[in-house]
Amino acid sequence: MTFKLGTGLYTGQIPPTSPRTFHQEYQDTLALVRLTEAEGLDSAWVSEHHGSADGYLPSLLPLLGAFAAVTERIELGTGVVLAPFHDPLRLAEDFAVVDQISAGRVIAGLALGWRDEEFRAFGVDPHTKVGRTVEISKILRLAWTENRFDFDGKYFHYEDVAVTPKPARVPPLLIGGFVDAAIERAGRTGDGYISSRGAPDRVKAAFELASKARSEAGFTGAPIVALLQNTFVTEDPDGDWPTVRAGIGHQLGVYAGWRSGTDVPGVPLEVIPPSEDDIRRTTAYGTPEQVVDYLSDVVRVLGSYPESHLVVRLHYPGMDVEVAARSIELFAREVAPRLREIAAG
Known about the structure:
Elements: E1 2-10, H1 22-38, E2 43-46, H2 60-70, E3 75-78, E4 81-82, H3 88-101, E5 106-111, H4 116-122, H5 129-145, E6 149-152, E7 157-161, E8 173-176, H6 180-189, E9 192-196, H7 200-216, E10 224-233, H8 237-259, H9 276-282, E11 284-286, H10 288-303, E12 307-313, H11 321-344
Parallel strand pairs: 1-2, 1-12, 2-3, 3-5, 4-5, 5-8, 8-9, 9-10, 10-11, 10-12
Antiparallel strand pairs: 6-7
Helix pairs in contact: 1-2, 1-11, 2-3, 3-5, 6-7, 7-10, 10-11
């Protein structure tokens, strides 16, 4: 069994009250990714959205290329590329170049997207997102493995085209989603399934559903599985809580603001944070012992798969890099060894 621990998602968001610049944010992100590798963790992950008032990272592969240039060992994942907004040949090329820079360390996570404003901005009919994503997944695989290929789909058509260079290794293709249909689609389409925050029982059921769909589609072996989890490790839970609460409040509050129809032309972004109780309930927060206790059940689920990834977010919008760095160090030194033991059974 290969159980891997990574940091992310790195999203480059800056709250409106923060004096930080995007140059500073990206440079600090590189520092945290270098620290992730130096502390013996396994991967670093980025995520995509477009047109957000807080500058949510819109362009994943350039930043992932920067990660590749400042690291030597860790895997580099997209969690996730919003596939319907991308030309599949260009996406295949960009992934291949970053994979070559990194000497074969890229993991390609894809998902459908859900925010109407993004579909409007790109001129994509949201009703086509499932079909586009399935076709893009197939095109990526062909582009990375075939010298030249044809493709005749509903949304994309290619005749005798080539993508060069090929990646150093064919990136594992993970598909994200929450509802059962999306989970089954991940099992049928990619090499694995990527999920976000959930009770261990739900995570277990989702992974089993992806595995069943993968088997029914004729693939051998279990899927690669990945889980994204808000986390923060501290030696001072009371003292650090206001900073973490504010950062998670912005992180999740932006999504709630989008769902309520803000951050669109004529309607400024309204950040609608969850309640403090909800943040505490869904975050692996506290001392190393408390974080191990919170994560232990879901780690046992992950550890039952041949390859699995737990991606812990330890840096939040507006957070100083020094605060996040201390949490990465604590996680790597005092939490990760115990989680690896739990995953190994």
